[in-house]
């Protein structure tokens, strides 16, 4: 998220919605995610800002809006805004399907920034 300061300035100039600062617009990511139905281990190797769909279980609340998510292939960190969490009526332990954006970092493992999430009914 090193580009944050730069893109904020540009976005104010173009008057775009606040959710668009991360680069790609949510609807672009959602379309991309519909094609990228992946496992945790695949998502962890994908490029920054790739839209992905994951199905698995929320296993832990780490801190604030950071959670641990796992599927058969492994675990990954996911970032779920409080309002998204509340809207979906989630709790730790729920099986979910999420649409998110791959967020790569220089010094810590890749995680997923969640755009939308729903409980997955078996």
Automatic annotation (TrEMBL):
| UniProt superkingdom | Bacteria
The record's annotation in SUPFAM superfamilies points to: Hypothetical protein YgiW
Task: Tell me if Transport is a UniProt keyword of this record.
Answer: no
Q: What are the entry keywords?
A: Signal
Classification via InterPro entries: BOBF_sf, CarO-like
- Organism encoding this protein: Acinetobacter halotolerans
Q: Which residues form the signal peptide?
A: 1-22
Family matches, as Pfam families = BOF
Protein name as annotated: NirD/YgiW/YdeI family stress tolerance protein
């Amino acid at each position: 998220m090193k580009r944050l300061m730069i893109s904020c300035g540009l976005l104010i100039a173009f008057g775009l919605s606040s959710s668009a600062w991360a680069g790609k617009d949510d609807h672009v990511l959602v379309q991309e995610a519909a094609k990228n139905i992946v496992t945790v281990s695949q998502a962890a190797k994908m490029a920054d800002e790739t839209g992905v769909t994951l199905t698995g279980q929320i296993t832990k609340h780490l801190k604030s809006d950071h959670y641990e998510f796992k599927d058969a292939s492994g675990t990954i960190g996911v970032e779920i805004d409080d309002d998204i969490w509340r809207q979906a009526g989630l709790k730790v332990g729920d099986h979910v399907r999420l649409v998110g954006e791959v967020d790569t970092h220089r010094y810590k493992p890749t995680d997923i920034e969640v755009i939308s999430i729903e409980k997955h009914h078996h």
